[in-house]
Amino acid sequence: MTRSVQALAYSRPSVLESSQAGQLLGLETAGGLTPLGAEAHPRFFSGFLTSPSIAARGLLAVADVASARYYQRTLPSSLDPVVTGNGDRLRFESFSGCCGVYARLDVLQDGLDGAETGHGTTNVDVNHPLREALSRITADDPLHLRVGPDEMAVTTMDGPVVEKKVPLPDRWLRGFAEAQVVSAGFDLRAGLPAAEAVRFLRSLPRTSGNASRGAQWVVPAGKTLRPTTRPVAGAVCLPGPERLVALQRVLRHATALRIYGPVADGTATASAWEVVLPGMRLTLTLSPDASRGFSGEGGVLEALATDDAASDAELVSVLLAWEPRIEPAHLAEQSGLTVERVRAALTRLGTAGRVGYDLADAAYFHRELPYDARRAERHNPRLVAARQLAGSGAVLVDGEPATVSSGERRYQVRETDGVLSCTCQWWADYRGRRGPCKHALAVRMVRRGATVAGGVR
């Protein structure tokens, strides 16, 4: 697994302090991007929270996921949560160390007591003393939140005094991209009122065990969910139910539970579980299996395989302005591209961490992950292998099927209704459920005329 080290530099630790006016929560920021460009310590918000104790628990849930490994537990290492200011809300995001769970807390305008919110993305310091302090908040006494340095800190800091260095695997970065692509294909499958949501979520196991291994399914039944042993019509996959444990932080405040996913096709699939809170939403998106991270799902590969998508993404990126909701039709009108090409461009931008997907809004949103997520494209094994095949003349596309020579073997790639299939073992194992194999991807590249030189574009 390719790793780099992500260095996060803060001017001081984040703290929760008491004053005569109430409690003050100061979240310190590291380097990030804003409409003004790169900033060492951007400032996104200063104001009161309408539901302080709920926001504290939601932030702890996001931090829980960042420090967790739900598969092959090893010594924990976590990247501080990412925070994005979208003008009318704050989004706190994290990804589990095992690459299988994506968490996001959206603090909406109603949860921010009308204060103005800035624009941009950065990491925010959530240290152990702060976590302990947040866990002690039990009442909704006034809580002032500051995301970014206060004015005095801006004028007096001589340099960072807190630095964290965290291993950052490439598959972690690919996971952020794949989770966004997978989510964009979900629909709302079920909704539970508060009491039923609490009852259902509290009935789930909190740790892995023989009873919870593998995928499970649930079926909407009136105002509740009924477990089922197989993916019947209308069923939603619940892969590794113990991975929803972070939602326990906010259950007492839940007003509803929404479940999102694809149409059940008889196989394990990803799903998203959104707890609705006063002025907030906490969402956990689960990979199809606890042992299977998002990084290998392959949903972004088609969008990475063409030169058109690269140039389209460059054009669309210029039009992004930290919107909380990105409308493809509006971008199509501005750019002169078709809506389909805009969507492909947004998928490609997702691989660089530049857009996410909000299931409740059924819309993309603009953010800029504060690390080089473009490595996720450069180090994607199937993409690199496909470019090598396409660039070495191993692909013959005269007639149908196309043939691909790989080592001493020759594979046949057929296209049916726009979908490519292959005679390789990857296709036999997954039947396209985890994206195209390297042979089909290479054929797609050659047919679309992607520029490939020496296997690397």
Strand segment count: 25
The rounded distance between the terminal residues' Cα atoms is 22 Å
**Percentage of residues in helical conformation:** 25-40%
Overall mean confidence score, pLDDT:
85
Shape: globular
CATH architectural designation of the largest domain: Roll
Kindly provide the name of the CATH class of the largest domain. Answer: Alpha Beta
Q: What order do the helices and strands come in, and which of them pair?
A:
Blueprint: E1 3-10, E2 15-19, E3 22-27, E4 32-34, E5 37-39, E6 45-48, H1 52-66, E7 82-86, E8 90-95, E9 101-107, E10 119-123, H2 128-135, E11 143-147, H3 151-156, E12 162-169, H4 170-183, E13 187-193, H5 194-202, E14 215-221, E15 224-228, E16 236-239, E17 256-261, E18 271-277, E19 280-286, H6 301-304, H7 307-319, H8 328-335, H9 339-351, E20 355-358, E21 363-366, H10 375-378, H11 381-391, E22 395-396, E23 402-406, E24 409-416, E25 419-422, H12 425-430, H13 438-448
Parallel strand pairs: 3-11
Antiparallel strand pairs: 1-12, 2-3, 4-5, 6-11, 7-8, 7-10, 8-9, 9-19, 13-17, 14-15, 14-16, 17-18, 18-19, 20-21, 22-23, 23-24, 24-25
Q: What features would you describe in this structure?
A:
Helix 7 (307-319) packs across helix 9 (339-351). An eight-stranded antiparallel β-sheet has the order 10-7-8-9-19-18-17-13, sandwiched between helices. It has helices at 52-66, 128-135, 151-156, 170-183, 194-202, 301-304, 307-319, 328-335, 339-351, 375-378, 381-391, 425-430, 438-448; strands at residues 3-10, 15-19, 22-27, 32-34, 37-39, 45-48, 82-86, 90-95, 101-107, 119-123, 143-147, 162-169, 187-193, 215-221, 224-228, 236-239, 256-261, 271-277, 280-286, 355-358, 363-366, 395-396, 402-406, 409-416, 419-422. Strand 22 and strand 23 form a beta hairpin. It folds into four domains: 3-168, Roll (DNA Polymerase III, Chain A, domain 2), CATH 3.10.150; 178-292, DNA Polymerase III, Chain A, domain 2; 301-375, Arc Repressor Mutant, subunit A, CATH 1.10.10.10; 381-448, no CATH class. The protein is globular, with a radius of gyration of 23 Å. With 457 residues, it is an alpha+beta fold. The protein has 13 helices and 25 strands.
